[in-house]
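Q: What does the assembly look like in three dimensions?
Context provided by user:
Components: two
Sequences:
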Amino acid sequence: MPSPRRCSGPEMDTSWATAAEIAAAVTSGKVSAVQVTQDALARIGERDPVLNAFTDVLAERALARAATIDKSRQKGPLAGVPFAVKNLFDVKGLSTRAGSKINRELPPATKDQPLIERLEAAGAVLIGALNMGEYAYDFTGENVHDGNAHNPHDVTRMTGGSSSGSGGSVAGGLVPLSLGSDTNGSIRVPASFCGLFGLKPTYGRLTRARSFPFVASLDHLGPLARSTRDLALAYDAMQGPDPEDPVCVDRPAEPVMPVLTRGVAGLRIAVAGGYFRKGAFPEACAALDRVAAALRVDAEIEIPDAASARAAAYVITASEGASLHLQRLRTRAADYDPAMRDRLIAGAMIPAPLVIAAQKFRRRYRGEVLKLFETVDAILAPATPCAAPAIGQQTFVLDGVALPVRPNIGIYTQPISFIGLPVAAVPVPLKPMPVAVQVIAAPWREDIALRIAHALEQAGVCVAPRPAI
Amino acid sequence: MSDHLDAYIDAAAQALGLTVKPEWKPAVRANLEATFRFAALVGEQELPDDAEPAPVFRA
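A: Here is the predicted structure of the complete assembly.
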């Protein structure tokens, strides 16, 4: 951990400032980007030994970048905003470890992942790379190679994963903004357990070039933050086509900031019933009810075949993930987390017809769910079945059945990302632990999900709670 | 199911060039059982012969 120069007489307390507040202060000259960076580095030095959110801190690079911003006359919308990325993003000069032991042997990346480039072009300052579940096959935030990430609201509890450091770093006040990835829920789960706003955009919206993949047909990248405005600012800076990612659509940017405060009047919103009410712990139900009440939503809607959708996502994930790792499993099996290794080996043995059937079902399910959006603009559902479990907890009881924690945290996120729908995860500050709700919109309507999230934030219903650390 | 899957795991490991140590096998089997259960749930969905998989290749 670096020992950054301590700041003397800070002009602004940035310890819980939003990205928007920091950018405004840097742009107006109230505080320098170098000062903000030094403060962030100091907080990381103080708190990360407990939280274990960071795997790499880039003090020299960050301070140099901040100095450049201070000298520039044209400040971007994220001027001086410190951010960090899950360590599956390429960062120039670092091996892209993706939470693994094996990838540390890769040569250092020669370029930054494009979303880093886009955020830095908007004035943000990359501070470091973040802990994550090994190869992103994880919902807990536990990692045998780098140590477990710890939840800032209760360090005995999970951050959620696999974007564990992305959750812990922002909820712990180390940085106001982070990037994570979400294949089956890995942005929305840490947002829920750590009490943050998270955006999983539409599949294909944000480029995934130069990031270490997991399940190509399900992988998304996106931001986590403590405010909806920060999500929108970051999201707007990151949009746009990228020929380096064949999945990234050739679609012009559709900025959300101009419409963020438009409110929810006229929007048709319903709560997901059936599958999404089964198994939820009281806190997840309470959070959903609170959000629905604030939005005056009475309507309930059934997402058809959600259990099958979750099952199909599970099968595709196991198979595609195993395909990605097959050669490494042949030669380096002992270097994986045993739990990961055994899941991947099993995944390699799934007969192809079962995987293809899951992909055929996926298309039909997509058609059925898209029909729902002819009658509603957004659907509310729990993000996780419960608030953060204890680190190391192996089982919990869902719908009367004791089930392993690790694969079942994503029961409510998987049927949604399975067909690439955009989701804003919104945190409800319950005691003792927060838990989030998914605001789900039709493809390419991130604006609607974020408008609803912003209205909930403005109403004080959804807030990123500040931990007592 | 268990004996049946053990034989399947041995055969598949050999075909795929994977090593499954005896102490790994219970967890591999448990994961495989779970995946087959999920696949069976998907299999209950009736799909027409002309159903297209979600990813569509375009030349």
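Follow-up: The first strand of chain A starts at residue 54 and ends at 57.
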